Amino acid sequence: MLVSWRVGEGRIFWSADTAWLSNARIGEAQNLDLALQILLPPDGGQVAFDEYHHGFVAPTHWWQVLRGSLQAFGLMLAAAVALLFWSYGARFGSPLPAPERPPRAAVEYVHSMSRLYRRAGARAVVLRALHRSLRTELSRLTGGAEGLSHGEIAGRAAARCGVPAGEIERLLERTADLNHIPADAELIDLARQAEKLRRRIEHATYRDG
């Protein structure tokens, strides 16, 4: 079926089937004559083909499918979302510095470590660390304590810091004795004695330096 109607100064032809224009059927009956009459009108002019069904068409964007009111609503919604994000990111006052946390004192560290060692029952570890610290301080004071006995170390240190040699030797012997682990009270007392000796050593070092 072929339908024709005039639109303005032109004419539109609509065919229900386009197979008669194919190469296989153009020679049947009067298909060629009909095609020539359509393509070559007597008054001349241009011929345009609707190639939509052949796939020659610009793709339709989803935005074009929406009506005008829906497009306006979408634009307003996008503007509202952008304004919301901007309001959350805007600053309404001067920036405040982050609160400064005071540094932890060495006493807090010592207390925390002592609690951990006490819970673990690691008195031997504390005693060994105390003895190692004592030997390091005394070695720095005397110029070297490698291979020396506790008595020799104590004698050299006593001449430099003024602490009796017997007191230094007893402290070294007690902290080196891992066969008799002291109780908490005695361990604290040993730590105090070691701290007192360390201060005397520092004083002697500054004085001689």
Question: SSE layout and pairings?
Answer:
Elements: E1 2-7, E2 10-15, H1 31-39, H2 62-65, H3 68-89, H4 106-120, H5 123-142, H6 150-161, H7 165-176, H8 184-208
Antiparallel strand pairs: 1-2
Helix pairs in contact: 5-6, 5-8, 6-7, 7-8
Protein name: DUF4350 domain-containing protein
Organism: Symbiobacterium thermophilum (strain DSM 24528 / JCM 14929 / IAM 14863 / T)
Properties at a glance:
2 domains; single chain; 209 residues
Describe the global form.
rod-shaped
- Integer-rounded radius of gyration: 51 Å
Average pLDDT works out at 76
* Total domain modules: 2
Strand count, sense and barrel status of the largest sheet are: 2 strands, antiparallel
- Residue share in helix: 55-70%
**Largest beta sheet: what is the strand line-up?**
1-2
Measured distance between first and last alpha carbons: 119 Å
Uncertain ranges: none
Q: Strand content of the residues, in percent?
A: 5-15%
Output the helix-strand order: EEHHHHHHHH
Count of individual helical segments: 8
Which structural class fits the helix and strand makeup? mainly alpha
Number of extended strands: 2
Organism: Symbiobacterium thermophilum (strain DSM 24528 / JCM 14929 / IAM 14863 / T)
Protein name: DUF4350 domain-containing protein
